[in-house]
Amino acid sequence: MRFLINRTDAIGDVVVSLPVIERILSRDPSAEIHVLVQARTAPMLAGHPGIHAVHIRPEDSGLVRLMQQIRPDAVLNLYHRDRAVIVAAKHAGVPIRVARTRGLDQTLAATHRLWKGRFGTGRHEAQNLLDFLEPFGWDGGWSQPPRLFLTPEECAQGVAALADHPHPRVGLIHRGSGAGAHPSEAWWKQAKAVLRQAGWHPVTLSPPADSELPETDLRGLMARLAACDAVIGPSTGPAHLAAALDIPLLVLIGLRKNHAPDRWSPMGARVQVLQYPGPEADLTDGMDRIPPEALLPHLDRLT
Which of 13, 189, 215, 287 could lock 9 by a disulfide, CB 3.0 to 4.6 Å apart? Predict the structure, then answer.
C-alpha cells in the first residue's frame, strides 16, 4: 500500500508521529510511505529509512494535483486542523481517508473517523496517533520511540561547531518558538552557574537569538545536539529532536494536564523528566520554582 501521512504543524508534532511509520512498516514492510510537511520541518526527515518521499505542502489549490501525482491508497491526516488535506483526498479519489472529527467538511470527506478525544486519556500523543491505523487493524499498544538520523559528515560538523566548548558539554534549549512553558532568562543564568560549578560546560543551542554560536539551519541544530553529552530544555521541538537522536535529555515540563509528561514528554530510553513543584501557572513563573540544583541528580542518572 501507498500511504500519505499529513503532519503540517510543528517540529515536535512531526517527531511524535514517527511511530506511525514504524508501525505501518512492521505490519507491511513493502508499504510506500509519503509524508506531507511544511518546508521548515522537512529537513529533519532527510535520510529516514522508512520514508519513501517527503513533500512540501502546497497551497490548498495544489493539494488535489499533489494527491493525483502521489496516488496514495490511504491518507492519514494526523494534523486535524489542516482540514483541506482530507477534502482534497476525496476529490482526488483516494479510497481510504482517515481523520479526526474536526470540522464538518473534514468529517464528511473522511471514510474513517476518529471520534474519541485525546485529552485526559493518560495516553502519550504518539499512542493517540496510532489510532489512525485502526482501519487496518494496526492500532493500539505501543511502539519504539521515534528516531531521526544524521550522516557521519553532519555529526563531524556538529563536533566542529562545538569544539570550543569542552566536555562534559550540556546543550541548553531556553524556550521554543511558540507560547509553551519555559523558565525565565534569570533562571537560566542561575542554572548555568550551578552547572559550571558542578563541572559541566553549558552551551545555549536554541533559540538562535540566545545562542553564542553562529546561526545554523535545522540539520545543523540536530548535529549540534548530537555533539552534546546531555541536553536540557522544556518540552519543545529541539528537545524532541534530541530525544529522537538518542541524546541524554532532561526535559522540563509544567503541570497543565493537556501538556503533562504522560502526553507530551519527548520519548526515549535516555529521557528524564523534571516538573516544577508549585501550583503556579506554568506560563507565568511556575518553572522558575525548580531549584537549579535539582538538575544535577538527573544529569548524573543520564550520564
Answer: 13
